[in-house]
What does this fold into?
Amino acid sequence: MAETRALLTILADGRFHSGEALGERLGVTRAAVWKQVRSLRASGLDIHAVRGRGYRLGGPVELFDAALVLEAMTSAGRRLLTGLEVLSSVDSTNAYLIREAARGAAAGRVCLAETQQAGRGRRGRHWASPPGGNIYLSVLTRCESGVTALSGLSLAVGVGIARALSRAGVPDIGLKWPNDVLWQGRKLAGVLMEVSGESAGPCDVITGIGLNVRMTREAASEIEQPWVDLHTVMDGVVPSRNRLAGLLLDTLLPVLDSFVDTGLAPYVDEWNRLDMYAGRQVLVTTPGGVIGGECRGVAPNGALLVMTDGKYRQFAAGEISLRPI
Ligand code: BTN
It folds into this structure.
């Protein structure tokens, strides 16, 4: 999509533009314009072509703009940011930052993408990443004291996302252990944390967040779980994507920066208040089999607490999955 960014920027206003006018502005032939339109359509964008009027997007699109993202941040958040890149298209923002980290990128580096060709979800799943409507964002931080110091961080990140969404005026947000962000039981955002380095020494921490703002019908057809986007949650009045990205960063950078010192303690009560499964009967799928019980929130170490046969059992994050009965 990199070569079609200029075309998308013109079409972003949602108005008609003739093939001839587009060709002139882009300095290419009309046939080349048509080729670019086809490529944007193939990536999931809804582009109408009407004889005599030209091309227009199904609706206006707000493209990412680093200056507008920064505008939504406080000076405290901005101080923790060492670089903000907006990519038109990338395999995965997490994979990109992992590569950048290996080349020595500094902690506090962030990338946002309009679309991902190979968006990664948890447990090896694919993350639907159509262009122009959602948020795909990754943050690189470093931890000098090894992986154990990060235990529970993914729950704190879930709390951070819920705080950011509340700052953006999004109502009724809840969490599903460890950090799925839900609205009325449907998934609105997901977090994929990837850590590389030494278990007892310095490591790179990549926190990737996918937030459904306006999902396309085509891309939605491949999502295998109940999902929702902000367009539905907010009855069509969607907050600006740039502001949302800014609020996410402004809330998450301090959480990521201070976690080694604070640990999970400042987040546990808030996590439990946001817990959508509290008191509900669930099935926990572990490598050893399926266990039924009642969800009782998280323990101070971030483990999931489930009451089965009158006893509490703790489950650590990892290869377990949780579903309501
Ligand atoms: C989940 O399965 O719930 C986690 C989804 C995480 C998706 C985000 S989108 C930005 C970042 N880049 C990726 O490839 N994945 C994460």
